[in-house]
């Protein structure tokens, strides 16, 4: 007979692919081993806790017998010191990162100043802005005078030669326009625009029967425009000028291609209209409701309609504001209208129920 013992038999290690339920048993021995390790960890933790309790009891009995207090081990002191050290290290790292960021910011500013040094004063910039306003208003002669005086004070203002050439072109002074455009190209400033400006001058020569030229001005204009495209492929205006030239030559198919190329490069927003309306909104935004200008007679000009709608919002007349917005919407491109009504000044009133049709997400 074989000897028998009371020791329980170990379970047989099975590595079948699946049991009767179809579940995999491949990792069952590993799961059992993990369970045994977890039981051992609980037992060790229990012994450690019991040991610490008995140690505290022994300490209490010793204090009662001797009448003296036995100081505890300095564990919490060490932990406190460690936490304080970590806080100090974190503060030092934060201060260092802040100082590094400040130094890097100053370095970027210095690099930007070295790349584009400011060669003009605030007063000169104010004169330049006033001259460009005159040019836009159609006062080209006044613009030429102001820009010429400004260039005489300091020839270092970037693009001043091109701007003077543009003003001279609008003023009919083709000689000055040609000279300043060539100067701008030699300075490598607004090269593509200056080449396009020279091309416009050539097309004007072609339409002037009193001027004789060895080379057909239209061919020279086309060459200048293609050069302008090569210099700055993102510039839409040489494409537009070339489309105009090709159209007058009877090449409508090629002209249409250039129009599409110019359209692809243009900002979808009408920049002049956006700036006009935004500047009016800014002026109205700074006024109190009682100081707003009186309502003007009905108009179809969006430059008047949208600011009037904003003024109505400030007065609290949201029905009138909604009517003006509907009228503006009917005479303006949809994307441009959405862009403008989301101006920060107007968007403050987006939650008004009577304006919900214009701000549906609110």
Feature tags:
362 residues; mainly alpha; Serine Threonine Protein Phosphatase 5, Tetratricopeptide repeat; extended
Structure commentary:
By secondary structure, this protein is an all-alpha fold. Among the domains are: 122-189, Serine Threonine Protein Phosphatase 5, Tetratricopeptide repeat (Alpha Horseshoe), CATH 1.25.40; 190-266, Serine Threonine Protein Phosphatase 5, Tetratricopeptide repeat, CATH 1.25.40; 271-355, no CATH class. 68% of the residues lie in helices and 0% in strands. Helix 6 (174-186) packs antiparallel against helix 7. It is extended and about 100 Å long.
Can you lay out the helices and strands and say which pair or pack?
Blueprint: H1 28-66, H2 75-115, H3 122-137, H4 140-153, H5 160-171, H6 174-186, H7 191-207, H8 217-231, H9 237-248, H10 252-265, H11 271-285, H12 302-315, H13 318-330, H14 334-341, H15 344-347
Helix pairs in contact: 3-4, 4-5, 5-6, 5-7, 6-7, 7-8, 7-9, 8-9, 9-10, 11-12, 12-13
In summary, what is this structure?
This protein is mainly alpha-helical and 362 residues long. The chain is 68% helix and 0% strand. α4 runs antiparallel to α5 (160-171) and α7 (191-207) packs parallel to α9.
